Predict the structure.
Amino acid sequence: MKQGSEAQPISSVKWVNRDDLKANAYNPNKVFPVELELLVQSILTCGWTQPIVVRSNNEIVDGFHRWLVSNDERLLEKTGGMVPVVVLPDEMGMAEQVSATITHNRARGSHFVMSMAEIVRSLKDEQGVDDQWIAQHLGMEQEEINRLYDNAGSPDTKGDPEDDFEDGWVPDFTRAEGG
């Protein structure tokens, strides 16, 4: 049996025709169209940086959405319909395969709002990029950009603390008590 780095699936990345792969029937991960387009943009910009993980029967364990978008004509043009894959050992049973799919998905984590807000603020204020660039490269709608920028504490979008604001309303609890 191979030892060390040679024993790792990533040591044997190969390019296969995307049409030879098949989705598994149990993946609970769903991605919205905006994020799928962002994935295409990522591959167009950076190239393929992560292979699709498959079993020897070409069933996808991880990377379903990378495989799905690989049918985009812009990506087909770049790779001729080929996608990078790594193959997991055949000794892995179905329970381990399902577990691998779930853990690959969950291990990617989530983006926290305040961290994203700081990134948007930095891109706009320090890097000088405009909202259109952020929308295209980060897959955001204008409203999301505005909210994140506002959450970062931008003085341009906050009200003046010296402004006088009226109380919006005060609840009348006497009516609820039958008064």
User: Anything to note?
Assistant: The longest strand covers residues 82-87. The chain has a mean pLDDT of 83. Helices lie at 33-46, 64-69, 73-79, 94-107, 113-126, 131-138, 142-151, 173-176.
